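[agent] plan:
  1. take the single chain provided in the ticket
  2. run structure prediction with default settings
  3. attach C-alpha cells to the ticket
  4. add a short note for the reviewer (M.T.)
[agent] executing step 1
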Amino acid sequence: MILGLDFVISKAKKYGIPLILTLRNNYHDFGGRQPQYMNWAKAAGVPINNDDDFYTNAVVKGYYKYRFKGVLIGISTITRVSYRDKPTIIEWELMNEPRCQVDYSRKTVNMTPYVKSIDNKHLLSIGMEGLYGHSIPDRKQNIPGYQVSTDFISNHLVREIDFATIHAYPGICLWFFLNLGKDPGYSTSVRDSFLNIVYTSIYNFARNGRTFGGGLVWQILAECLESYYDGYEIVLSQNPPTSNVIAQQSNKMTTVG
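[agent] step 2 finished; step 3 output follows
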C-alpha cells in the first residue's frame, strides 16, 4: 500500500497535482471503517461494543494515532523524503465523513493538536459533510447532523483546523447516479449540466473572495478499475464531455488569485 502511495505522490509531483490525503474512511468502502482497529483492541482484551468505539476508546485511538504518525513521518521509498516534508501534499484529512452516535465526533477533532505537533507544515481538515447540529438550531432541521452526532460549525471552531469542506449530495443527482444506465431517461449530459451549475457557483464564490476556494468531484477513475465502481465513477477517457467540463473548471480556477 505504501509503495503504491509513494508512486502516486511522485507522479503527482511530476505533473504538478497537489494532493489531499484522507487517512481513513468512515465507511467500509475502499478499506475504510474501523474493523482492523477493533480487532486489534479485542485481541488485546479491550472490551469493544461497536465501531463507534473507534472515536471514544483510548486504546483504539492510540492505535489510530500510531498509524497516523507512521504515515506522517514515513520516508518515501522513491524520493527518500518524509511525507510531512512533501510539498505535493497540501493537506491531511482526519477521516472521510466521521460519524459517531454518542460522541459528536469530538474525539476525532481532539486529535488535531497531536497531528499538528508532528506536522505543522501542512493544512489540516476534518472531512465532515457539512451537517448542522445544536450550534445552529434554526438550520439543523434542514441538514440534520445531530442524527449522526456531528456539528459542522462547532467541530470546526478548533484552532488547529485550517479549513472546512462540505460534501454535496443533491437528491436528484443522487437518484440519477444510483440508477446509472438503468433508467431510459438518464444521460451523462444531465450529470454534466449539474456539474456546470455547481462549478459556476464555486468559481463565482472563489473569484469574489467568498466562502469557496475550490471544488472536487467524486470519483474519477482510470480504466480497468471496475472493482472500485460505486455508481458515482467518471472514467475521463470514456466520457469526453464530462472531461471537458472538469478541464474548463480547472483552467478557470487557475485564474483565481
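[agent] step 4 note for reviewer: The chain has two domains: 1-167, 168-257.
[agent] ticket updated
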